[in-house]
Structure formats: structure tokens, C-alpha cells
Protein: Dehydrogenase
Amino acid sequence: MYLTDRVAVITGGAGGIGAALGRRFVAEGAAAVVLADLNADAARAVAQAIGPVAHAVGVDVTDERQVRTLVEETERQYGRIDLFCANAGVATGGGVEAPDADWDRAWRVNVLAHVYAARAVLPAMLHRGQGYLLMTCSAAGVLTAVGDAPYTATKHAAVGFAEWLAITYRDAGIRVSALCPQGVDTPMLAEGLAAGHLGARVIAASGAVLTPDQVADAAVAGLAEERFLILPHPEVAGYARRRAEDPDGWQAGVRKLVRKLRAASQ
Structure:
């Protein structure tokens, strides 16, 4: 899919990757970009900076009724949604001991929000015989997020759901991509580092932290090629192959890195 004259909706659009996607889509000639975010004021500020084809709405992606309303109002205003980017996500920094509330929030934002988006946009897309879903799933969805069990589990679920959609609806004209960046210079990473989360420290130590704009560039290229897995960090493909071919060796390597980081912090 090329973005010229397209109508796109982006959740988590108030900052980070979502805002970068909005800027890039407009630069590509999108007809309209709707930035949806729990922080409506921040989303409005981004939309105003992008220009007149962008506008913002306040949406809680864990509330299916709000997601459905977002889709209905966008379709009413613009006639269609060509591309829905389910981009909102949360990390916890917790392990198995993370409170149930953290597990539940990760599940609702990182997985169910994708389900709600698909339920809302698919009927009209299927009627037209075309449409695109871009789901931000993270490299944690094909590898792991060291130190964050809820994030790892839910991002794997998100990739699995995206793959199911791609298999089920491709022949009906629906395209699906899973955007899986590794380290990105976003508030999520900054907050993780400030809190001392192990996963954030692993990402920072990798030396491969991209800007949100670089991730948006990769997303646009992947959409043009209609690739299922969009990997802004090319090395993730190699890691995934190594993990599949030698899971014990892969885990040993990650454990070694974790031990090194823990020793350095003592």
C-alpha cells in the first residue's frame, strides 16, 4: 500500500512511533490522518503541528465501544478507512510477580485493543474488498523482552493474532503487517531506564536504538511491499532465525548478557 490519498487511523498517536507515523503518512500524501490517544490534548498538539489533514480524538483503546465509535465517526467523515494502525502499547517492567492489574492492562492494551480494532474496521474493508491493518507488536513478539513477562507474553499474542488475521483475510483483499521494532527512543524506553527496568537496560546496551522517525520510514517501506513482518532493526531477523534453530543456545546468550548487566550495576 502507498499512502497517497489514503485515510489512516493511528492509535497511540500522541507521541513516539504513533506521532512519527502520522508525520510520515502526511508527507507521503495521505488524504487524512486521525491520531487517536488516551491523551487527547497531546494528540491535538501533534495534529496541529502536522497540518490540516491531521486531526485528533481522545480514545481509550481498551474500551471497545470507544474504538467502534472512532471507526464509525472516521468512516462517516471520510467515507472509508484505508489503513488502521493499532499502535498503542504499554510495558510493565515486571516478572511473574507483577500484579494482576499490570497483567490485565498489558493484555487489554497490547492484545485486546488489536482485536477491537479488527472487529470495528473489518466489516467495511471486507465489503470494499480492500483494507490494511498495521499492528505495532515489537521485536518482543518474535524474541523476548528480558525483565518484562507481561510485555513478552502479550506481544507474542499480538504477533500471533496478526498472523491469524493475515492468513484468514488475505484472499479477501485485506493486508496485515506486524511492525516489530526493537529499541526505539520513546517515552516508554526513557521511563523504563529511569525505573531501572532490566529490559530497558538491555535495549540501551545493545547500541541499536532507533528514532521514531526511522521506525516510521521502515513502516512506510514495509507497507509499500506489503510485508507481514516489518523489522526496522534488520538484525532481529537473524536473532529470530538463531532462536528458532538453536533455542537453548539463544537463551544461553541472552542469559549471559543479563548476567553481565547485573554485574555491572552492582
